[in-house]
Design brief:
Length: 275
């Protein structure tokens, strides 16, 4: 893999972080947009790359266009955008899990897209966005019976993931069907969201991959174990529903990086990953 210039959103921890480290190990330069720069203060690995100039840290919120514009400008000509922004609930005794705001991933992706620069020669970065399995009616129907109740509890953050996918579908020119793709609610998208200033026109976003992982765990990277030992089974990745239960965050990160190297297989697709 040629040395890449990567811009990350939501990579302070978990999947985005693990993927960023893998990319750094392969020679990439990575720019992180972080709400708090202190998140890496004790991370000797990242600090080493900061000193070498291959990691750039930008303070800001991915929902804020001024901050995403600064991230783009700091990164330079970007080859890959790695978007792993997620929803973190708070807990209320009276309301249970509370997701506020209800649409962080949709908001953030919209801000990222609205501030994407125009590069000389028509160069455009590859966009990889993390979503989730079980979002749509067909996807929910394909879930293993035992985990369907859990996904019912995740209705609110899943509405946000549908919003994320809807924005990308609009900009990439993919036809959207509410029956099979899910309903993108106005409360998530906002009024007149397609008219937002700076949002790429339909069909102008050329290189998109949406990744839908199964339930995430903190397990090892099975793919690395299989590669090392030369035996065993790794995760599965397919446009088809997998009926999978789980996958480790480290294995999802492995797939994200592997997909960049095999981009022609995955461009402009939605891929499910799980064991």
């Amino acid at each position: 893999m040629a040395a890449l210039n990567v811009l990350t959103f939501g990579a302070s921890r978990n999947i985005g972080y693990f993927a960023a480290v893998r990319l750094l190990e392969k020679g990439a330069t990575v720019t992180f947009l972080l709400r708090s720069l202190a998140v890496f203060d004790e991370d000797t690995l990242i600090q080493g790359y900061v000193k070498s100039g291959r990691v750039r840290l930008v303070k800001g919120d991915a929902a804020n266009e001024a901050d995403t514009r600064l991230a783009w400008d700091t990164a330079g000509v970007v080859d890959v955008v790695l978007f792993t922004v997620g929803t973190v609930p708070t807990f209320s005794i009276f309301k249970g899990m509370v997701f506020e705001p209800p649409n962080p991933t949709t908001q953030c992706m919209s801000a990222v897209l609205c501030t994407m620069p125009t590069y000389a020669g028509g160069h455009q970065p590859k966009f990889i966005a993390l979503s989730s399995i079980g979002l749509t009616p067909p996807a929910h129907a394909a879930l293993p019976l035992l985990i369907k109740p859990l996904y019912a509890m995740l209705e609110l953050p899943h509405r946000d993931k549908i919003g994320l996918e809807r924005v990308l579908a609009h900009c990439s020119g993919r036809t959207w069907d509410d029956t099979t793709d899910g309903v993108a609610r106005e409360s998530i998208m906002g009024e007149n969201w397609t008219q937002r200033e700076g949002l790429p026109a339909p069909g102008t976003l050329k290189h998109v991959l949406v990744v839908r992982p199964a339930i995430l765990t903190d397990g090892i990277c099975v793919a690395d174990e299989v590669a090392t030992k030369g035996k065993g089974k790794s995760y599965r990745a397919s446009e088809q529903e997998l009926g999978a239960y789980t996958i480790s965050r480290k294995d999802v990160a492995h797939f994200l990086v592997d997909a960049i190297a095999r981009w022609n297989e995955f461009e402009n697709k939605t891929i499910n990953v799980g064991y």
